[in-house]
């Protein structure tokens, strides 16, 4: 394959050459993301692959006589795929991008050639063929002749006899290389001066693509890192089993008044099912009948949470600010209602006075 033609924005590409270049660029983009995961180096390398695939797509679109704005699709999808690999968005994003990219490559490859009367070399026709041919100038054939005891090379043209006594011209060793380099430099300068608009558009396009990639990386990468950093914090905030002993008193109507450190708990039996939260004051979600503990004197207290536990008992937890007032109302009032249940408080003062921790709060 002509290496210089990969970077040619002129000329034509046949379908098999375009398909080979685009597919290889896509494969190399995938491999760069696998070998260098979450690395900007892989994104930078993909810029080169996208440029080569884009130039081949431009030549292919020209050969198929299609609208040239289509050339932006393939490099854009390659860059989007590379950035998606960098931010690790997952197969949910990568699969549709890859599907669309492959479909476009196949579609362009199946389009018929509008120009078939050109002399294609390895599927390419363009100015790089002329440059290559000019650099491969025919050399004069040289035959070795014996001058004294030394075997010299002198130019020999067919039909002429070599002159053994002729003085040989002295050539600089690097004259041919310097002449070729000067020709290439002159050709590049001539092309740049005659295609100033193309150079400007190419520079602006590369600048825009670079800015888009950098902005995408800056926006998505910190969000991903932040979400990964938050994962362990969620685990740390999960409630852990408490080994703090409870002070418990069973009241005559079949419920318990308990205290765990400064948290007052009213526990009763009656619900069945899986362990769950029945009511939460923080979110105000759940069974609204559990929103208030109401005594027969209209005194009301809001439980922080009401939960159904593994032993089929319901537990209502109250703020330490309300603990002493609730204990006094349990001892002095006649009844209370909570979560649709009505509890009698007859004999509750006697039961509480038997527990020293509750008795000192009465």
Structural commentary:
With 362 residues, the chain is an alpha+beta fold. It has two domains: 150 residues, no CATH class; 113 residues, no CATH class. Helices cover 47% and strands 17% of the residues. The protein has ten helices and 15 strands. The strands form four sheets. It has a seven-stranded antiparallel beta sheet, with no helix packed on it. Strands 11-10-14-15 form a four-stranded antiparallel beta sheet, covered by helices on one side. Strands 1-2 form a two-stranded antiparallel ribbon. Helix 1 packs antiparallel against helix 4. It is rod-shaped and about 115 Å long. It starts with 11 loop residues before the first strand and ends with a helix. About 10% of the residues have low confidence.
Summed up, the domain count is 2
Enumerate the strands of the largest sheet in spatial order, edge to edge or round the barrel: 5-6-7-13-12-8-9
Structural class: alpha+beta
- Total strands: the figure is 15
Low-confidence stretches: 147-154, 156-160, 168-174, 227-241
Give the termini distance in whole angstroms.
97 Å
List the topology elements.
Layout: E1 12-13, H1 15-35, H2 40-63, H3 73-87, H4 91-110, E2 124-125, H5 127-135, E3 142-147, E4 150-155, H6 175-194, H7 196-236, E5 247-250, E6 256-260, E7 263-269, E8 276-280, E9 285-286, E10 293-295, E11 300-301, E12 305-308, E13 313-318, H8 323-332, E14 335-338, E15 341-344, H9 348-353, H10 356-359
């Amino acid at each position: 394959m002509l290496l210089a033609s990969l970077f040619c924005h002129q000329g034509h590409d046949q379908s098999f050459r375009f398909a080979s270049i685009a597919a290889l660029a896509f494969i190399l983009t995938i491999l760069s993301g696998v070998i260098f995961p979450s690395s900007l180096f892989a994104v930078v390398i993909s810029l080169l692959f996208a440029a080569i695939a884009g130039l081949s797509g431009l030549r292919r679109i020209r050969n198929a006589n299609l609208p040239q704005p289509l050339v932006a699709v393939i490099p854009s999808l390659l860059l989007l795929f590379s950035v998606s690999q960098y931010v690790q968005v997952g197969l949910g994003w990568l699969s549709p991008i890859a599907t669309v990219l492959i479909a476009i490559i196949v579609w362009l490859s199946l389009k018929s050639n509008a120009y078939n009367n050109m002399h294609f070399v390895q599927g390419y026709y363009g100015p790089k063929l002329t440059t290559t041919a000019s650099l491969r100038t025919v050399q004069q054939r040289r035959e070795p002749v014996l001058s004294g005891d030394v075997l010299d090379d002198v130019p020999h043209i067919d039909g002429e006899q070599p002159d053994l006594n002729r003085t040989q011209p002295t050539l600089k060793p690097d004259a041919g290389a310097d002449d070729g380099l000067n020709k290439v430099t002159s050709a590049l300068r001539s092309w740049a001066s005659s295609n100033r608009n193309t150079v400007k558009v190419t520079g602006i396009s590369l600048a825009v693509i670079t800015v888009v990639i950098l902005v995408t990386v800056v926006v998505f990468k910190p969000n991903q890192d932040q979400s990964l950093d938050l994962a362990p914090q969620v685990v740390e905030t999960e409630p852990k089993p408490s080994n703090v002993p409870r002070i418990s008193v069973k009241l005559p109507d079949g419920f318990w008044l308990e205290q765990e450190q400064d948290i007052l708990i009213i526990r009763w039996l009656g619900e069945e099912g899986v362990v769950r939260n029945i009511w939460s004051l923080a979110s105000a979600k759940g069974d609204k009948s559990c929103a208030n503990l109401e005594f027969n004197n209209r005194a009301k207290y809001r439980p922080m949470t009401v939960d159904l536990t593994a032993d089929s008992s319901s537990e209502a937890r109250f703020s330490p600010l309300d603990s002493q007032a609730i204990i006094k109302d349990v001892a002095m009032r006649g009844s209370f209602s909570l979560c649709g249940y009505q509890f009698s408080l007859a004999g509750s003062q006697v039961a509480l006075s038997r527990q020293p921790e509750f008795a000192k709060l009465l």
